[in-house]
Amino acid sequence: MDVHKDTIAVAVTATGDSGAATPYGTCPNTTAALEKLVKRLRQAGSGPMRFCYEAGPCGYGVHRTLTRLGEECMVVAPSMMPRKRGDRQKNDKRDAANLAVLHRGGLLTAVWVPDAAHEAMRDLIRARLAAVRAVRSARQQRGAFLLRHERVCPHGRKAWTKAHRRWLAEQRFAQPAQQIVLEESIEAVRLSEQRRDRVEGCLRAQIPTWSLCPLVRNLAALRGLDVIASAGLAAAMGDPARFASAPDLMAYLGLVPSEHSSGCKRRIGAVTKAGDSHARTLLVEAAHCYRFPPRITRHKLAAVDAVPEAVREIAWRAQTRLCQRYRQMMARGKLKQVVVTAIARELAGFVWATACTTSDPPHETAVDTSVPQAVCPGGSAGGSRAPRRQPLKRATRRARATYERPGQTGLAASAGKTMTE
User: Fold this and answer.
1) Integer Cα distance of 101 and 305 in angstroms
2) Which of 70, 104, 138 is the last residue of a domain?
3) Closest of 10, 90, 115 to residue 52, by C-alpha
4) How many Å apart are CA 198 and CA 201, to the nearest integer?
5) Domain end position, chosen among 55, 78, 104
């Protein structure tokens, strides 16, 4: 099916056939028309039917309707479809026939279809992202207007602080029209900030009722991720079980290097930047936090205390590894952008490990209280709590000796092994 806002072009083919598919016609994109189409196809042939259409702006309504009718439906990833470079003719009938032939040969890649509740949370997260972008746009327009008229904030004052807002209120222009522009731009910033805070408050109120709330809470224990950023990552991941390994999640988020090799020449390029750009941005922003030494800050204690012991171990292991990796790569003279991207890629591996721990929590085992248990900062073992403040070198050395085995290197030793032990 080639689905559009008003119409759906349909083509059919049978298992075992060869050649092009047969055009079946066009029907309206309504629930009643889909039900009528399914009824007619059931009468025309025997055996199970399989439907497919490309993911697009029309959402998943067609998929949910066909699933409710008991039919199998695949939502196809458009970027993963095989295409003929020499084909210069495109219309709805040919697109539907091409989809039918590729689906018959098993050459299509399906996307994960969220349920209605998950899609609603996605929409709310996207609404907050749009509000954040509106704030940034309004502030940039106000700054560009003042710069055109040589009104620059005094040196040493940060933008949009109380001192900066007082300075804005003191600005006066000789022309009344320019004064109106300044006041309107300041009001636009204020309204956009109120909208951002209002949407963010609604998002925080909806997270506890979300099915992925445990995943959001556990991801918030990782350094650089708060509740809002964790919700954005959880919305982009969806069902963690669809990623068989950490590299699969890295590739899905577009954090793996591109490659164009041929023969004996191997060319590695920049990251692919595929998948959800918002989730990739969240990981890159969080990667900047690992330039500091590993520690659990005061504002992070509540998030760390709210997660299980296995998640605390993953979060602390992420800190000790990524902070060391950041310093090593910077010492070798790597560009900061390259270092941050590499840290974000490895952080995605720890996100995957946390998601696996959330979906498949480890079994509780009896603890011998007569033997001292190793603890990680912010966590507890044997019912006792570790000191919150301890020397940095001692804490790092203690965690490394406790959680890393000799002979293990790379992400498999730091993140993946937690899932198999």
Assistant:
1) 54
2) 104
3) 10
4) 5
5) 104
